[in-house]
Amino acid sequence: MRVRIEPSYFEMSNVAAKLIAAQLRRKPDSVLGLATGSTPLGIYRELARMHKDEGLDFAGVRTFNLDEYYGLAPDHPQSYRYFMDENLLRHVNIDPKNVHIPGGIVKDIEASCSEYEASIREAGGIDIQLLGIGRDGHIAFNEPGSSLGSRTRLKTLAQETISDNARFFKSLDEVPRFAITMGVGTILESRHIVLLASGVEKSDAVRLAVEGPVTSEITASVLQLHPKVTVFLDEAAAEKLKRRDYYKYVEAMRQKVGQAEV
Ligand code: F6R
User: Using CA positions, which residue lies closest to atom 4 of ligand 1?
Assistant: First the structure.
């Protein structure tokens, strides 16, 4: 696990966007796993800018989102489909047929989850998976106690997540209680996982995910078992890490041996 601590949210977002851009230049038909929420907004803004100013090409890119609220139609302003269109997809030259987001309104939940898994496999698996982290340590909507081998499925949201997400809705009652989410097992199959966290309110979850024991109580902690994970943090999110100085030292040493780029 590589931990990169950047001075601010802005810098963290730009460095992570550069990593994704490098991946797209290396492999124009890359498969990206995307997240919603506040954390990746800076990356999406920077990717859209790179597309506009530097011609970063999304024509061959395929995307799979982590999750969608169950019960929200794609045109609902709080749906993750709507979020992705607004914040990234309509700003770049991605082919709509290459965009995959779990359906929020489906007749057969199990069948649609299996189809989602199958389409990830058919695309050849995910090259880079972006993740945020919940205050309860969740990745995607794999709430505490989720099986570490779980696949895409319907998940009941934890109270903490419902109240955290209430900021996007008019009232607490409107926040969906369920989501369709990739499982922990699905996420772990990605070739490179990039987790981002910003702000002091994430610092406990970050500490437990990076330096705590591997446990389904903090589903992000399972990333410790993955061979290629990059954790991008701003200073506030890194505040409670025991080995914070060591991670910074490692990055300085990587510079010396020309290993600063991922
Ligand atoms: C979003 C997702 C969630 C968020 C997490 C953090 O697609 O899967 O796990 O990444 O809840 O959300 P923010 O970034 O809003 O703090």
Answer: 132
Q: From the centroid of its chain, how far is CA 156? A: 19
CA 116 to centroid of chain Cα atoms: 17
What's the pTM?
0.97
Distances (CA, A) of 2 to 21, 134, 216: 19, 20, 21
Q: What are 213-237's pLDDT values in tens digits?
A: 999 999 999 999 999 999 999 999 9
Q: Cα of 223 to ligand 1 centre, how many Å?
A: 16
Q: Which atom of ligand 1 is nearest to the CA of 140?
A: 8
The span from the CA of 97 to the CA of 86, in Å, is 17
Tell me how far apart the alpha carbons of residues 29 and 132 are, in angstroms, rounded to a whole number.
24
Asked if residue 35 has its Cβ within 6 Å of ligand 1, the reply is yes
In this structure, of 116-120, 203-207, 256-260, the range with the lowest mean pLDDT score is: 256-260
Which one, of 160, 102, 155, 135, lies nearest residue 220 by Cα? 135
* Annotated catalytic residue within 6, 68, 117, 143: 143
Q: Is 108 a catalytic residue?
A: no
Give the separation between CA 85 and CA 31, rounded to whole angstroms.
17
Nearest CA to ligand 1 atom 15: 37
Across 200-216, average pLDDT: 98
